[in-house]
Amino acid sequence: MIEFKGVHYPKSVILYAVFFYVRYAVSYRDLEEILGERGVTVDHATLNRWVVKFAPLIAARAQARKRPTASSWRMDETYIKVKGRWCYLYRAVDRDGQTLDFMLAERRDLTAARRFFKQAIETHGVPERVVIDKSGANLAGLEAVNVILKFTGIGRMIEVRQVKYLNNIIEQDHRFIKRITRPMMGFKAFHSAIATVAGIETAHMIRKGQIPANGASAFQTFARLAA
């Protein structure tokens, strides 16, 4: 259970605010106004603290509880502005469009690509194949992973395919993330960007049915992750 000690609002209010922010294209000031119309007076700075604190905790639970994914991956990056600079959001989905993993990095290079693949493999196991774009850094990252697999005796090497049209599924999937982040007008700190993106990805997984709902609404499913 995620602890809500020390906060001065009901847990349900906090969860509703966090879910609404990461699911819909609103700014903190928009959300402040929306809650005010519902009789909840809360400052936009407090809303920011709630998202940064609770979104990554709920996201970690979502990763642990989501439905199994396929072993054929599609990987690509999109862009998020942090402190006035474009940073790189590494993302991977399976062949069915189900979210696998995501990672925000300040640079698009071999180190970042290798770190992303290591993180995804630790969570989901070694994939049969990974489809990427023509990025040399992503190719080098996968080749580095294959070298490790070869010398550690895992047995199976990852098939790497660089076919642009096969990556359409993840390029389309980026659109939801970009639509939600657009009203945020960029992030002021890298850690808050990471936390917020984790919440957005969790809401997106719920939207795609990756978290067992058992008839619950999207918000109820999100709230259950904090229980």
Structural overview:
The protein is globular, with a radius of gyration of 18 Å. Helices cover 51% and strands 15% of the residues. The protein has a five-stranded mixed beta sheet, with helices on both faces. It is α/β, with parallel strands linked by helices and 227 residues long. The chain has helices at 11-23, 28-37, 44-65, 110-124, 136-152, 168-181, 190-207, 218-224; strands at residues 72-82, 85-94, 99-105, 129-131, 159-161. β1 (72-82) and β2 form a beta hairpin. The chain has two domains: 11-67 and 188-224, no CATH class; 72-173, 2-Layer Sandwich (Nucleotidyltransferase, domain 5), CATH 3.30.420. The protein is built from eight helices and five strands; from the N terminus they run αααβββαβαβααα.
How would you summarize this macromolecular structure in one to three sentences?
Keywords: DNA recombination, DNA-binding, Plasmid, Transposition. The protein is 51% helix and 15% strand.
